[in-house]
Amino acid sequence: MDWFYTISGFLVGFIVGVTGVGGGSLMTPLLVLVFGVAPATAVGTDLLYASLTKIGGSWAHSRRGTVDWKVVRLLATGSLPAALLCVVLLHYLSMDEKHLKALITGVLSVALVLTALALLFKPYLQKMGRSPDGAIYELHAHHLSGATIFTGAVLGTLVTISSVGAGALGVVVLLFLYPRIATAKIVGTDIAHAVPLTLVAGLGHAALGTVNFGLLGSLLLGSLPGIWLGSHLGVKIPDQILRPFLATMLMIIGGRLLFA
User: Fold this and answer.
1) Burial, 141: exposed, middle or buried (Cβ in 10 Å; 0-12, 13-18, 19+)?
2) Which of 14, 220, 231, 252 is the most exposed place for a label (fewest CB within 10 A)?
3) How far apart, in whole angstroms, are the C-alpha atoms of residue 203 and residue 86?
């Protein structure tokens, strides 16, 4: 079975390397629906998996100067306390397995649908930051900071409970809030923010006992070479084909989880 996990890690890593879509939206449903891993364990394991696999991407973007560290700090101001609060609540609520499974699968299905919608409507949401004549709408600096911190808190909550949300959903919201920032820098900023968020949330799940370290090792054994191969092959799939395909797949997975 460990080899099946490793092969699955390789396939998900390859898809992430080629498409840039966050592994959480693919790996967690795969563990739950295909391998029958308990949702809480799937989320906790995937969070640490995500933090370790995103470190390399964050370092590469930082070296290229495609990370806005001010935005990362604002996001983290909201997301890290939210992640810690979610972990504390999960601990003190002490829900039985049935109710915990219902909570996590419910939030996971909603997060997948939101991610799918974000992929589908990404170009339209980005255009909402501009007026018909091409001028850019911008929030006042004070309101922009508050909106970014609030976005971080929402992402922190979604990611801690479902492991989904730090990828496509985060990028789309940042594109809307910061239309002047280049897309490459938005992506780099989102990846850089995801590292501490998934690490804090993952360590919190580890403290709760919902991380399978053997499973984590098997996934990493396959995913790290998969990500490397996918990112170096340079496979280019037209965005107008890729986004609807991935969005439809996530919609189906989200619906499957919701009605499981």
Assistant:
1) exposed
2) 252
3) 12
Q: How many CA atoms lie within 13 A of 120 on its CB side?
A: 13
Are residues 95 and 103 in contact, defined by beta-carbon separation less than 8 angstroms?
yes
CA dihedral 28, 29, 33, 34 (to 10 degrees): -70
- Residue 6 to residue 1: CA distance in whole angstroms: 9
pLDDT in tens, 33-86: 888 898 889 999 999 988 888 887 788 788 888 899 999 999 999 999 999 999
**Predicted TM-score of the model (pTM):** 0.82
∠ Cα 125 131 133 (to 5°):
130
Task: Report the distance separating Cα 96 and Cα 100, nearest Å.
Answer: 6
